[in-house]
């Protein structure tokens, strides 16, 4: 039996992936006096609330080459998914880990995927790979078929303070989302950056806007995943709206883990879907 493993970084908002050997490699959230490791032990709500009260500097750090190597462990075939290489060094560290791993073990292989996204879109990708493993497809077949798996990510953010403070979006792009009641709606661009689409006021309008965009962008009722940062109400409303329009849609709701919570901030929603 081939020893197969799926390895993601914690930006995927996944603490488990049943049915396959799986590991999530944590990013870190760092302030002047604390370091939060984004693993399953992290109390995300406590972190978000502490960050809200904290007014000093804060930033994040991606996994090191060594962190990735540890997670690869003794697996022979690894599918490794990272947060977009355009906003994080995670992919680059994983790329170097892959090179070292394959050199040290010529009989082992790593299929490394730059998600060009974050959160639930990565989770969908990981599930797709898990399902293909379960079907008994080979490493080559999975790598090849994965190339035609098409997904997208939309987000709505009430604040983009941490994104702007850490240089992940321009201050100009972040400005609207700083005004009370105004939310920024955007998508993960093809280059894996944040692309702004519109601004919204009010919960009902926001959800309508998300659904309008997802349909415009090609959603036809397949799988969708929502990650929310302390906003289960909106996540449930969004899921209900999608299922109302597409009764056969499989929509799952999960919580943003630490990394996505830090950047999406309280109230933020991420929506990944198949197109
Ligand atoms: O390496 C690091 O320190 C991590 C940096 C990550 C920066 C961006 C995280 C974004 C998280 C926010 C909305 C969705 C973004 C879409 C990405 C293309 C979630």
Structure description:
By secondary structure, this protein is of the alpha/beta class. It has helices at residues 44-53, 65-72, 90-104, 120-134, 139-146, 161-165, 171-175, 203-216, 232-245, 258-264; strands spanning 4-9, 21-25, 28-31, 35-37, 58-61, 77-82, 109-114, 151-157, 182-188, 194-201, 223-228, 250-255, 269-274. The chain has a six-stranded mixed β-sheet with strand order 10-9-8-13-11-12, with helices on both faces. Helix 2 (65-72) crosses helix 3 (90-104) and helix 8 crosses helix 9. Bound molecules: heptadecanoic acid. Heptadecanoic acid binds next to strand 5, strand 8 and helix 10. Residues 27, 60-62, 83-84, 87-90, 117-119, 153, 155, 168, 188, 192-194, 260, 263-264, 270 line the site of heptadecanoic acid.
- The fraction of residues assigned to DSSP E strands is 25-35%
Q: Describe the strand arrangement of the main beta sheet, using strand numbers.
A: 10-9-8-13-11-12
Please report the total strand number as a whole number: 13
- Helical segment count: 10
- Terminal Cα span: 33 Å
Distinct compounds present: heptadecanoic acid
Choose one word for the global shape: globular
Mean pLDDT: 97
List the uncertain runs: none
Order of helices and strands: EEEEHEHEHEHHEHHEEHEHEHE
**Oligomerization:** single chain
Sheet with the most strands, sense and barrel status: 6 strands, mixed
Evaluate the radius of gyration: 18 Å
Helix/strand-derived category reads alpha/beta
Helix percent band? 25-40%
Short description:
With about 280 residues, the chain is α/β, with parallel strands linked by helices. It has helices spanning about 45-55, 65-70, 90-105, 120-135, 140-145, 160-165, 170-175, 205-215, 230-245, 260-265; strands spanning about 5-10, 20-25, 30, 35, 60, 75-80, 110-115, 150-155, 180-190, 195-200, 225-230, 250-255, 270-275.
